[in-house]
Amino acid sequence: MPKALIVIDVQNDFCPGGALAVPGGDAIVPGINALMAEFDAVILTQDWHPAGHSSFASSHAGRAPYDLIDMPFGPQVLWPDHCVQGSEGAAFHAGLNVDRADMIIRKGYNPAIDSYSAFFENDQTTPTGLEGYLRTRGITDLTMVGLATDFCVNFSAVDAARLGFSVTVDQSLCRAIDLEGSLAAAINGMGEAGVTLR
Ligand code: VGL
Ligand code: ZN
Asked: Which residue intervals define the domain Isochorismatase-like in the entry (predicted)?
């Protein structure tokens, strides 16, 4: 059974010094590179927002980063401007073995909707195309690593499990943002969705 390593958003803006730095985000890079050898396929995801994206606090008058607002598809945490298309912050961490990737999937390019998951935008309906890519390659088993555990890794893992993939999240190669208990909630939710956590 072909198995894929899905590396979520290991980009400069999520690493120390970046616009939305995840503590220790860069520490997972060597371990992710080493893990790539164990997989038939390696897929990288890249958070890829146009300037002025609706998930940016700067796009909402009177709002600050980490405020929670209501959006047409549900609640949205407002983020600092990050991973703007073509910027240095949106680039992969320089140490990541990008050359090993078969596929790079970008998400968050729709100005009106955020996309934490590698499979669906946050309306939970609009596909990114990753499901079709994996199925047409006959890939059934996914291991996910990367940033951030409680947002993009979590949403990607839960969606993949719901789609019927066998999903493992390697927590030692993930790091979390952890806003008001979001890490504990994510671990709970992934477990309930049938994701194997190790
Ligand atoms: C992410 C917040 C905003 C992530 C992306 O990669 O977890 N988090 N955009
Ligand atoms: Zn983002």
From this structure: 4-195
Looking from the CA of residue 55, the nearest atom of ligand 1 is 3
Q: Which domain holds residue 146?
A: 3-50+80-197
From 6, 58, 59, 79, mutation site for ligand 1 pocket: most ligand atoms within 8 A of C-beta: 79
Residue 41 in any domain: the answer is: yes
Q: Is 3 a catalytic residue?
A: no
Per residue in 147-189, pLDDT (tens digit) is 999 999 999 999 999 999 999 999 999 999 999 999 999 999 9
Prediction pTM value: 0.98
In a domain, 160, yes or no: yes
Task: Please choose from 151, 158, 177, 178 the residue to mutate so as to test ligand 1's pocket, defined by most ligand atoms within 8 A of CB.
Answer: 151
Q: What's the 3-state SS for the chain?
A: CCEEEEEECCEHHHCCCCCCCCCCHHHHHHHHHHHHHHCCEEEEEEECECCCCCCEHHHCCCCCCCCEEEECCEEEECECCCCECCCCCCCECCCCCHHHCCEEEEECCCCCCCCCCCCECCCCCCECCHHHHHHHCCCCEEEEEEECHHHHHHHHHHHHHHCCCEEEEEEEEEECCCCCCHHHHHHHHHHHCCCEEC
CATH number for the domain including 9?
3.40.50.850
Q: Look at residue 18 in the predicted model and tell me its pLDDT.
A: 98
